[in-house]
Amino acid sequence: MDFELTEEQQDFKAVLRSFVEKEIIPVAREWEQAGRYPTEIVEGLKHLGLFGITVPEEYGGLDLDPVSFALVFEELARGWMGIAGVLGSHSLSCRMIAVHGTEEQKRRYLPGLATGERRTGLGLTEPGAGTDMQSISTTARLDGDHYVVNGTKLWITNARFADPLPVIVKTDPSASPKHAGMSVLLVDKHTPGFEVLKDIPKLGYKGPETSEVLLTDARVPAANLLGGVEGRGMQQTLSGLEWGRVNIAARGVGVGQRAYEEALAYAKQRIAFDRPIAEFQAIQLKLATMATNLQAARLMTYWAATAVRNGRADAETGMAKIFASEMALDNAIDSMKVHGAYGYSTEYEIERLYRDAPLMSIGEGTNDVLRTVVAKALVAGRSRVG
Hints:
Number of helices: 10
Helix content: 40-55%
CATH topology of the largest domain: Butyryl-CoA Dehydrogenase, subunit A, domain 3
Order of helices and strands: HHHHHEEEEEEHEEHHHH
Strand order of the largest sheet: 1-2-6-5
CATH class of the largest domain: Mainly Alpha
Radius of gyration: 21 Å
């Protein structure tokens, strides 16, 4: 087993780190507190080609290996977790189109998505259906050569920029099992009846908008049915969510890394009782625990990323997402403790990290649900430990 990044991956990480240090970190706290959309940073992401990280090269994308894919989200989240959100669901949906779309759908959408000229997200969650995807109530009724779509989607990142927005619907509400009647439709931005309503206020994860979407008798061409076959929506979405869990795990590593860096730097410069607090054993124990768990989460995330490329990896990605997201929250809390009262101040980075960290334990399936996913995979023999 090789625990080191390849030379190419190291170079790629260095480019990402340089961009984050120069373009994100200097403005993140100010823009986040002001609720300012990071337009200039998004332009930088376009320039680096990062909107095409899951798009095949033949359509103009980078088609990154899964570990390099994880590096993108780790480094961006280290600077500002919200920026990672701009690329998160976009990259997941690009992969869904690349893997499951018809050739016509790939040629129509992927080149623009790869450059960032087009952007996308994923219309999955509803007011009454989050982790339980089969409980969605959005319907799509075939009427001639169009589907008539009705329903509400909630917590949709990139909703105001998505064109198209892949929306999971029920094309056959009476199907049994329920997932057999679920499909994905690629809804173009200017479709009549498609409306982005309010942006949802959030504790953290600021920067990208997270919105409510309403579809009222929206007429979507039948040619926009992902893959051209009804009833495959659940499988198409789940295949994307495995990469999504790598994305979230990597974000956890990024937030955990920044929390550790802030704690270490502060402990070295903060003087108490005539010496840096880094010399006190109580602080040293926290720093050692933070660094140990951080590195364990990083290696688990890279391991899970590699497993994704080799086939179904619901157990591996679930384990990595659970561990890395909980590490991020633990590191944020311990870093705040190292900072003392200053950690509670909005003039320091740590309070933003503390607000961002909980999202990773919720997004792409809550950790408690993912524990059951991991357990089922172990019982079924799809993964093993030891």
